[in-house]
Here is the input.
Amino acid sequence: MRKCYPRIILLPAIGSMTLIYRDFDQAGLDAAYNNRLAVPDFEAAYVGRWMALSADARARVPCRLNLTYGPSPRQRLDVFMPPGTAPSGGRPALLYIHGGYWQGGDKDIYSFLASGVTDKGALFIAATYDLCPTVTMSALVEQTRQVVDWVHARAGEIGLDPGRLVVAGHSAGGHIAATLAHTDWAARGLPANALAGALPLSGLYDLEPIRLNYLNAACRMDAAEAARLSPIRHIGRTAPPTVLAVGAAELPELVRQTRDYGAALTRAGVPPRAIVETSGDNHFSIVDTLLDPGSALWPHLKSLMKL
Here is the structure.
């Protein structure tokens, strides 16, 4: 009897495309994380306005600026506070970590967020850190941990209730916020619950695609460092209450990263309180929604801070 074999169809190669991550070749992966290409007018539409509003906030809201938390000129933070004397138990605080893909950005751009917090009787703390390639990614993350060390050490001085410190961050700052949420604070001499909550916006939770795309020219991560600094690979069962946010109109990879991280938190037994995909928001417009009382994010932040 003649044997029949399945017919094998060879598909033609598409150009010289070589897949390096999921379904992406190099050009595709670069584009998948290029927020500036996706929102080409971001500086005129967002950053310029934020800087003007931030200058006004620094002039109007009571604050202590450029406090030193480390030896580098960029290791500085600002503390914005409501008027008047802090209550005996201290005030809640929002610690905000700026983005810029670990190689740009500055706390001064985001001072405009302060009044949305201080108007509710809370502190707003914004920190700047050294950038790649001047420092390694590991050193950068360690600097942001030193911010938390500093804030707790000076809780009485700045009028903080150390049990109500919530961290938020955007983009690379979202990555850092998640990393801080999974830090072993007890090993650093702080309470294990040094953070009362975390709210990363548009964060990067798996750094392997970053290692493989154009951003790594500055970040200079090898595979081991990318894995070590990926929050999705280091989820502890003692993570603080977490709310994840991403703009529904963001690049699909940013949305996927947020969903995947939320699923990983759930599998680890520390599910996020919510995953908020803000309608119509791109990678930059989502920042404006953080402290908007009418936004989907505000009720979650208010709950985390116990306002």
Summary: The longest strand covers residues 160-170. The chain has one domain: 26-305. Strands lie at 63-68, 76-80, 91-97, 123-128, 160-170, 197-201, 243-247, 274-278.
